[in-house]
Amino acid sequence: MIRYYEGAAPILPNVPTYLCRRDGERAYVLEHLAELVVKPANESGGYGMRVGPHSTVEQQADFARLIKANPRNHIAQSADAILHRPASAGAGGAASACHPNQSRIMKCRSLKS
Q: Residue 102: pLDDT band by 50, 70, 90 thresholds?
């Protein structure tokens, strides 16, 4: 999107994404639910998102059932990578720790001490 709309190379890398419709990636997600953020592939705004590190064993079992029932409907990303992403406000701007969501809307908080 950055290349298309801005004609520039992205400064920050994309967050690696696991597609649960792919057998190998789904197996990885099911084995690492406690470390991943699982999201519906067809929703936005954080609806239906499940944050593994903040979930119970029972909730993780529910995640697994939902993924197995409809693997095409789910993607997963590393909780560390998605919950805290670096951002820059541009030249001379303050750096921020941001909490991005899949729709590219970022809710930022300043890193000021």
A: very low
CB 20 within 8 A of CB 63: no
- Indicate whether 77 pLDDT > 50: yes
Q: Are 88 and 11 in contact (CB under 8 A)?
A: yes
How many Cβ atoms sit within 10 Å of the Cβ of residue 16?
10
Taking CA atoms, 62 is separated from 8, 39, 58, in Å, by 42, 13, 6
Label residue 48 by pLDDT band (50, 70, 90): confident
Quickly name the fold that domain 17-82 has: Dna Ligase; domain 1 (3.30.1490)
